[in-house]
Amino acid sequence: MLDLTVALAGPMATLLLGGLGAKVIKVEEPTVGDPCRDNAPYFGLGGVKLVREREDDFSVPGFNRLRNKLGVTLNLKHPQARDVLADLARSADIVVENFSAGTLDRLGLGYDFLRGTNPRIVHCSISGFGSDAQSGRGRGLDATIQALSGLMYITGRPEDPPVRVGLTIADLTAAQFAAIGVLAALHQARLTGIGQHVDISMLGVLTALVAAEGWEAVERCGAPTRTGQTVQRLAPFGVYRARDGYVSICAYTDRLAHSLFATMGRTDLAGHPRFGSRNARVQHYAELDGLIEEWTCSLPALEIVAKLQEAGVPVAEVRHPKEAVRDPGVLARKETVPMVHPQYGSVDELYAMGLPIQFSESAAGFDQPPPVLGEHNQAVYGGTLGYSLERIEELKALGVI
């Protein structure tokens, strides 16, 4: 697989495919490489730092995205890059890129060129608005996509302004759909011998997920679309303050709600006309949340969790990310993994993303450190493509690689 991606959505898609067993050849611009290499924070000799202090300090985000990849350099704007990319494409099943829509076409290196070189090729494009987007939409960055998708509008409390989701959720979900699309197209290519273009729009992905909840119908019923820590239609279902933190409680059926009330010592609420049935609770969710939080504020979070778990009510302590990534069960399943610097080993006990898929008969995951810029030029251009040492040196001297 040829990885022509940069930044986040594309590199994350190819990371997932690499974790599932694809041989990924990461193609980077010779002088600067993928911009994610320069994203703070960094880690290396001396620990974690906000500013790169040593040449071999590695970007934490870059580490996450560049693992399990062979690193080569190629200046796609150079006239001689066309022949090199064609040679690479002939030996590949998949090409993934996330340049602005039309960039590769303008360079003469788009899907038509790749398909002419290798009819079986699966070419995946990830962009803000899709390959057929009209001009004038601007760049599709995660925050702008969150804004356009409606996600910001439904996030936060009713009195809050629109709130950006803490994760770069547009990039990350686009990456997942890209991986799904690539695998489906690859299966089709193996059946028919014909590849295809897989076109992923970040806006399309995130808006589709927003549409899955039916927010317009909720609003037409007179209910607020932005309810902060509560999911009104499932009340009581939300985040509540404890004496020493927060807990998430999900009592979305009559049985669960009544069990919650009994644990609170408020069995009277089960027969109350405003709280006894689900429809009543949905209408009076704010008042009910206030009663629940009066109880949760009186107890430590872990005590609330123990009481409600015993009663069979879904509940969890709200954890800081540093606790979450160290969860023993998550670590045992390698869903998060220690971050190991290529030269210095484990640094400050940082953790990286693992592959959160378990197979009964297959091995999967990320076991290869990220390459330094152009680390595998000789292995790929010399070993895979059969270029002579003289040609590799010539291409380097000309600024092609």
What does this structure look like?
The chain has 18 helices and 14 strands. It is of the alpha/beta class. α8 crosses α9. The strands form 4 sheets. Strands 6-2-1-7-8-9 form a 6-stranded parallel beta sheet, sandwiched between helices. Strands 4-3-5 form a 3-stranded antiparallel beta sheet.
Secondary structure layout plus pairing:
Elements: E1 2-3, H1 9-19, E2 24-28, E3 42-44, E4 47-49, E5 58-59, H2 60-66, E6 69-73, H3 81-90, E7 94-97, H4 103-106, H5 111-117, E8 122-127, H6 142-149, H7 151-154, H8 169-192, E9 197-201, H9 202-211, H10 215-220, E10 237-241, E11 246-250, H11 254-263, H12 278-283, H13 285-296, H14 301-310, E12 315-317, H15 321-324, H16 328-332, E13 336-341, E14 345-353, H17 377-384, H18 389-397
Helix pairs in contact: 1-8, 6-9, 8-9
What's a concise summary of this model?
The chain is an alpha/beta fold. The protein is 39% helix and 16% strand.
**Computed CA radius of gyration, to the nearest angstrom:** 25 Å
Q: Give helix % range.
A: 25-40%
- Shape verdict: elongated
The largest sheet, given as strand count, sense and whether it forms a barrel, is: 6 strands, parallel
Specify the structural class: alpha/beta
Number of helical stretches of at least 4 residues: 18
Which range does the strand content fall in?
A: 15-25%
Task: Give the CA-CA distance, first to last residue.
Answer: 18 Å
The averaged pLDDT comes out at: 93
**How many beta strands in the DSSP annotation?**
14
Low confidence ranges:
none
Q: Taking strands numbered 1, 2, ... along the chain, how are they ordered across the largest sheet?
A: 6-2-1-7-8-9
